[in-house]
Design goal:
Layout lengths: L7 H10 L9 H16 L15 H13 L12 H9 L5 E6 L3 H8 L8 E3 L4 H4 L17 E8 L2 E5 L1 H6 L9 E4 H10 L6 E5 L11 E2 L2
Antiparallel strand pairs: 1-6, 1-7, 2-3, 2-6, 3-4, 4-5
C-alpha cells in the first residue's frame, strides 16, 4: 500500500483516523500519536506502537509511553528538543529513522508528503497563527503568547496547504469528525518561517541510508 499525500482518498482516511484532543497541553502528544498511527497503517512492521505490549489498560500504558517519548510534563505540555533522539532510540537497529529539518521549503514538504516510505510530517508555526484562523479562538488563560502551534500537513495543492490542527477538533463541539483546516501557501510559509526554529519539520522514513541533504539542513 502506498502513501500519497496528494491522494484525496488517503486524505479523507487520514482525517477519519485521527483522534481528538482531551487537553490543550496534549497537542504534541496527540500529534505524535496520530502521526505514528497513520504510519503504521502503511508500514505494519514499524516497531513503535504505544500500548501494544500492555497487560492491562493499553490506553493508559500508551499515554505513559507517549508522554515519555514527547518529554511531556504536567502544565507544560510536550518538548520538541529531544523528540527525534527519543524516536531514534526506539528505532535503533531497524530500517526506520526519525528526521528533523529546518529551513526546508514547500517543495521539500510536498516531496515528503509524496514519498511512499515517509510518514506525514509534523511542523511548528509562529503563534501568530492563532490570529490568522477563523475556526476557533484560543481562550485567555489557557495559552501564553509563546505557545507553539503544532500541525500535521496532509496535502499541498492549488496554492493551499491542507492540514490537521489538534486544537481545531478540541474547540469544535458540533462535529464528531476531525476538522480539515487550510491555509494559503503564502500564509503557511510565512508563519512556518517565523517560528522559533524556522520551518522546523519532523517525520519518519523507512529508506535505509537516506541522504537528507537533498531535503534540508538537519538539526543536530
Amino acid at each position: 500500500m502506498s502513501k500519497d499525500g496528494q491522494n484525496p482518498q488517503h486524505k479523507q482516511t487520514v482525517f477519519s483516523r485521527f483522534t481528538r484532543l482531551e487537553s490543550e497541553l496534549d497537542c504534541l502528544l496527540l500529534a505524535v500519536k496520530n502521526m505514528l498511527a497513520d504510519y503504521r497503517e502503511f508500514h505494519p512492521d514499524f516497531p513503535i506502537n504505544p500500548g501494544e505490549d500492555a497487560d492491562e489498560d493499553p490506553e493508559e500504558v500508551a499515554r505513559k509511553e507517549l508522554k515519555t517519548l514527547c518529554g511531556h510534563r504536567s502544565r507544560f505540555g510536550g518538548n520538541f528538543s529531544q523528540l527525534e533522539a527519543r524516536l531514534n532510540g526506539k528505532l535503533e537497529e531497524t530500517s526506520f529513522d526519525a528526521y528533523t529539518a529546518t529551513q526546508i521549503d514547500l517543495e521539500d514538504l510536498n516531496e515528503i508528503l509524496n514519498t511512499e516510505t515517509a510518514s506525514l510530517p509534523l511542523v511548528e508555526l509562529d503563534p501568530e497563527y492563532f490570529e490568522k484562523i477563523d475556526e476557533y479562538d484560543v481562550q485567555a488563560g489557557q495559552f501564553g503568547a509563546s505557545e507553539i502551534p503544532i500541525l500535521i500537513p496532509i496535502q499541498v495543492e492549488d496554492d493551499i496547504v491542507i492540514y490537521w490542527d489538534p486544537l481545531a477538533d478540541y474547540y469544535d463541539n458540533e462535529n464528531e469528525d476531525p476538522v480539515e483546516m487550510t491555509l494559503s501557501e503564502t500564509t503557511f510559509l510565512r508563519l512556518w518561517s517565523r517560528a522559533e526554529r524556522a520551518r522546523w519539520t519532523l517525520w519518519i522514513d523507512g529508506q535505509e541510508q537516506k541522504k537528507m541533504a537533498e531535503f534540508m539542513e538537519t538539526d543536530q
